[in-house]
Amino acid sequence: MDEIAEVPLSWSRRDIEQRLGFHGGRHTDVNTFLSFLMATLLSVAFYAALLPFKTTSFAEMFTERGMIPYQIVFFCSWAVAILFLKRRKLALQQKALDYVVVPTEPDFVLSSATVAIVMDRMYSIVDDPKHFVLFNRIVIALSNLRNLGQVTEVDGILRSQAAQDESSMETTYALLGGFVWAIPVLGFIGTVVGLSSAISGFTGVLEGAAELNQIKGALQGVTKGLATAFETTLEALVGVLFIQLYLTYLKKSELHFLDQCTTYCAKNIVNKLRIMPYHGGNEL
User: Fold this and answer.
1) Pick from 172, 82, 104, 105: which is nearest to 133 by CA?
2) Among candidate residues 125, 120, 111, 158, the one with its CA nearest the CA of residue 264
3) Residue-wise pLDDT tens for the chain (284 aa)?
4) How far is CA 12 from CA 22, 123, 282, in A?
5) In whole angstroms, what is the distance from residue 33 CA to residue 72 CA?
6) Residues with Cβ < 8 Å from 201, sequence gap 6 or more?
7) Contact 194/228 with Cβ under 8 angstroms?
8) Residue 158 contacts by C-beta under 8 Å, 6 or more apart in sequence?
9) How far is the C-alpha of 230 from the C-alpha of 225, rounded, in Å?
10) 10 Å Cβ neighbour count for 225?
11) Do 91 and 16 touch, CB atoms closer than 8 A?
């Protein structure tokens, strides 16, 4: 544990999920259970904040319109929790770009004989390279170079791993994509429920009320159904708008980071490779 604590880039100590006592997701992937707990706390905090304003129209939008607003708030909170955790995990991944694991001397040549030097430098910087996108790429490429000695294969392995990292990154947004789809659907369901309630209530008014005063009183229930119809859609669309905007920004940042990893590997790994001269054979 002392050795892990001494390295400047310790995933086990600096990953936000590890620090909170949960198993950290791979790279920028998020622990689903932790994000669920955070969403629950955020939802409770949101409704607790509405208590002093429970008589206002804003609070009534979330508390007097059936169960749909509660579901919208929870799913929005879950999405926010995932985005927050992913942003913190991405920030940790980006710190790996600040460290150079290959000696910068002009005469240093990366080959199967010098792989151990690079690996030793890497383990003096990070506790476990597999938890970092950049270092994981380098370890896979250097392991192949050390085992097979094929210098020409290193660039291809790095490119293949880069494509795999991008594919893995896309899967980490799958749950968020589900929320972006589900939240507006919940709003539209609230619209259907509210309109149905309003129409049925208005039909009841016309059938059962004979005097104008009775009609006015009964129409209050109709307007409540209309409020549910329009306000649930408003809540859903506004919530998903902000989620989608930040999701797009974060995804762009993560793609840029992957491009930076590719550039790093090209500059510090591929450019250091040399095909060593062959000294075997018999002299005449």
Assistant:
1) 172
2) 158
3) 444 447 889 998 999 999 999 999 989 999 999 999 999 999 999 999 999 988 888 888 888 878 889 999 999 999 999 999 999 999 999 999 999 898 888 888 888 888 889 999 999 999 999 999 999 999 999 988 887 667 778 888 899 999 999 999 999 999 999 999 999 999 888 877 776 766 665 555 555 555 555 555 555 555 555 666 678 888 899 999 999 999 999 999 999 999 999 999 988 888 888 755 444 444 33
4) 11, 14, 53
5) 19
6) 218, 221, 222, 225
7) yes
8) 137, 141, 262, 265, 266, 269, 270
9) 9
10) 20
11) no
CA 89, 95, 98 angle in degrees (round to 5)? Answer: 165
Q: Cβ distance 62 to 50 under 8 Å?
A: yes
| CB contact set of 27 (below 8 Å; sequence gap of 6+) | 89, 93, 131, 132, 133, 136, 165, 168, 169, 172
Scan for tokens 């304003």, then name that residue.
53
